Amino acid sequence: MHPQIYKRFCETKTAYLGLNSQTAKQYHADYIPILKLVPYAKSSPQIRQATHYLKRTSHIVLSSPSSTSLFFARMKKHKQYLRNLHYLCIGKVTLKRLLDFLPRAHYSLATTETSEGILPLILPLTDNTRILYPHSSFSRPVITDFLTRENKQFFAYSHYTVRPRDLDPSIFSPYKNIIFTSPSGVRAYTKLFSRFPNKIYWCLGPITLQEFQKTSNSQVYLLTNADRDKAPEKKV
């Protein structure tokens, strides 16, 4: 990111629209989630099947902090199985959620915080590996397609969806910067504003950026993990 652009970001008020309050703090942004997480019922067929598959699983894919927290909340009765598994994690915040629940967990961390980043961790797994992959109903099929293509033994299932929160558009008036974290967040913002207000928009990850550019002609910048790690305290 150009230093002058990033300087403007650091010196103005920011709203973080994602689901993770800890990441909002890392950007020194106000936490204003535009989506709400809606878990599927425990009685849902895919949830019951996942619980059964867990007993034969060797690896679990954890793709986001929200998915990780929900997964362990649902599976905590089966901790004796969870302790012995290997976890494939996307993102440091996801990893932290894992270690909060299982401090001694065996894990591998993807080098990039995208679905594509975890594929090199899956590729060398042996034929007798059994993978469980909980995800959002809006997740891109990158991981499931790869598992199928590589003939891996796996069970992938959606255990939650997300829906737009009922927000008053005026809540965003004080903010100069808006951070989007997912394509779903961009679409939810579009429902609030048919034409985007004059603000500085930032997208976490290239997929979110692509969704924004399909939706609006407003100026937008890609916000990287490196930007998050070096974000100084704001002066507002």
Using brief descriptors, characterize the structure shown.
six-stranded mixed beta sheet; five-stranded parallel beta sheet; 236 residues; 4pyrrol_synth_uPrphyn_synth; Rossmann fold; Uroporphyrinogen-III synthase HemD family protein; alpha/beta; uroporphyrinogen-III synthase activity; disordered C terminus; single chain; 11 strands; 4pyrrol_syn_uPrphyn_synt_sf
Mean pLDDT: 92
* Uncertain stretches: 232-236
Rg on CA atoms, Å: 19 Å
**CATH C-level category of the largest domain:** Alpha Beta
The level of helicity is 25-40%
Number of structural domains: 2
Query: Can you tell me the CATH architecture of the largest domain?
Result: 3-Layer(aba) Sandwich
Structural class: alpha/beta
Summarize the helix and strand pattern as letters.
HEHEEHEHHEHEHEHEEHEHEH
Assembly state of the chains shown = single chain
The CATH topology of the largest domain is given as Rossmann fold
Strand content: 15-25%
Structure overview:
There is one protein chain. This protein has 236 residues and is an alpha/beta fold. It folds into 2 domains: 3-34 and 169-230, 3-Layer(aba) Sandwich (Rossmann fold), CATH 3.40.50; 38-162, Rossmann fold (3-Layer(aba) Sandwich), CATH 3.40.50. It is 39% helix and 23% strand. It contains 11 helices and 11 strands. The chain has helices at 3-10, 21-26, 45-54, 65-75, 79-82, 92-101, 115-122, 142-149, 183-192, 206-215, 225-230; strands spanning 14-16, 30-31, 35-39, 59-62, 86-89, 106-109, 130-136, 153-164, 177-180, 200-204, 220-223. The strands form 2 sheets. The chain has a 6-stranded mixed beta sheet, with helices on both faces. The protein has a 5-stranded parallel beta sheet with strand order 2-1-9-10-11. Helix 4 (65-75) runs parallel beside helix 6 and helix 7 packs parallel to helix 8 (142-149). The protein is elongated, with a radius of gyration of 19 Å. Residues 232-236 have low confidence and may be disordered. This is Uroporphyrinogen-III synthase HemD family protein.
